[in-house]
Amino acid sequence: MKDIHSYWAYLVLAFLAFAVINALIGLTQKKEFKDKDLRIGLFTLIVSHIQLLIGLGWYFMSPWYKALRTNSASAMSDKATRLLAVEHPIMMIIAIVLLTIGWSKHKKKTTAASKFKTFVLFYGAALLLILSRIPWNNWL
């Protein structure tokens, strides 16, 4: 399960980075919001939600969750354990919430610029949160 979660993360980052770059290009070059742009945002949302489900499954089977339940004070005092047991899961959930809000808000926008701007803001913020709390030492 951990391997699936780790490899799927590459897919999530690729889709999310592509979606943010696509939205930035669309916004700065004042492009029309087309079906392609909609699908990029949707596929990013889907891939990210699948990653969340895989991650939640792995989290509750992980040794970090067990360490947190067994001795939370010890787990919280160790930086590496705290990152994997608390910080990473919480930040990833917040990032998925931002993606979901961004997707929902963009549907209500009427102009291409406002749709692209919504994707840039919400998907971009989610990307930054994800990059800030990836356990790079365990991942690479």
User: Share of helix among residues?
Assistant: over 70%
Global morphology = elongated
Average pLDDT taken over every residue: 93
Catalogue the unreliable spans.
none
Total number of helical segments?
Answer: 7
Strand count:
0
Class computed from helices, strands and strand pairing: mainly alpha
The major pleated sheet works out as: none
Strand content: under 5%
**Cα-to-Cα separation, first versus last residue:** 17 Å
SSE order, one letter for each helix or strand: HHHHHHH
Could you walk me through the main structural features you see in this protein, from its secondary elements to its overall organization?
By secondary structure, the chain is mainly α. 88% of the residues lie in helices and 0% in strands. The protein is built from seven helices and no strands. The protein has helices at 2-28, 35-61, 63-70, 72-77, 79-108, 112-132, 136-139. α5 runs antiparallel to α6. The radius of gyration is 17 Å and the shape is elongated. 31% of the residues are buried. The model has no long low-confidence stretch (mean pLDDT 93).
